[in-house]
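Exam prep: given the inputs below (a chain plus NAP), describe the expected output before reading on.
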Amino acid sequence: MTRSIAVVGTGRMGSALASALLAKGHRTTVWNRTKEKAEALALLGATIAPSALEAVSAAEIVIVNVSDYKATAAILRDDALASAIRGKLIVELTSGTPHGAREAAEWCVEHGAGYLDGAIMATPDFIGTDAGTILISGQSQAFRDNEAVFRALGGNVQHVGQDPGRANALDSALLALMWGELFGALQAIAVCQAEGIELGELGRQWTATAPVVEGLVADLIKRTNAGRFASDDETLSSISTHYGAFQHLLELMDARGIDRSVADGYDAIFQRAFAAGQLHGDFAALSQFFGQGRITAAATTKEAGRLVVQPPPDHPCEETECL
Ligand code: NAP
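Solution:
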């Protein structure tokens, strides 16, 4: 069944969303602050609304995709629009935080609208393809009732929970993983450039090493979920083994004058674990030192450009003694 849908915001991603809906025959009205950016969609059959109010008024489902939630609020939180959303379903596909999504859900419900919040785990070229992944959270009935619309946006659309903040929480978690890899790649590039290794070689060696890293990440998640932090027969590598190799990276970076900002962040986590006596634990034991561990960021200080860890008050050793 085709539906009447408004797409508010037709930047790179919003245009891809509107195109995918049009390809499946949905009656699609679009609005963009800069009208010219919406014009190409008219050729695909979209109606271009002269105002956000007219776009919203024309639709049963309103998909919002702008830069951030502040921009969404600037568009929707106006008296006329707040009245116009009554009885409609707002689907916020703009990236945001879990608490931002929960607050927006409350506001929409107060104004008589349904609310779903989605995290797009794809670039615009994946939208409308089988491999397009979008995580959606919030009212499960609203998701079920409109699943065909969401499937038009990507073959891998999933409802991930009733809490509207859950999709954004998963988004941040997955992006943290992605940036770990991307910032790791920046360090690897700097090392190769400093050592005169051509980057094509790095790319080839990474292809061979990546499955090992994927296995380590999967093992880390599994062990942390089970709380198996002490080294055992199945431990792939202990914290101290990692730290030994990590020292080589730090020495190389210092010798070659490579920026240590990212590596020093890693070092701070190692140091917290050492100060808590976790030298021989499984690498998964480090997961205890991200905010909910015994030593928090407040317990580290910077002296002469180096992070110094203060053991917690109940720890028996002097500073860094257990290293
Ligand atoms: P974009 O091309 O820069 O588009 C931004 C859109 O937001 C434009 O339509 C812009 O309107 C609108 N906008 C910004 N501030 C506004 C305001 N105050 N009032 C009205 N409209 C406003 O960005 P994008 O790549 O499409 O990203 C849009 C959202 O999708 C972001 O939340 C992004 O994180 C998310 N996302 C993007 C990707 C991606 O690969 N691109 C992937 C996943 C998620 P104007 O045209 O008038 O400036």
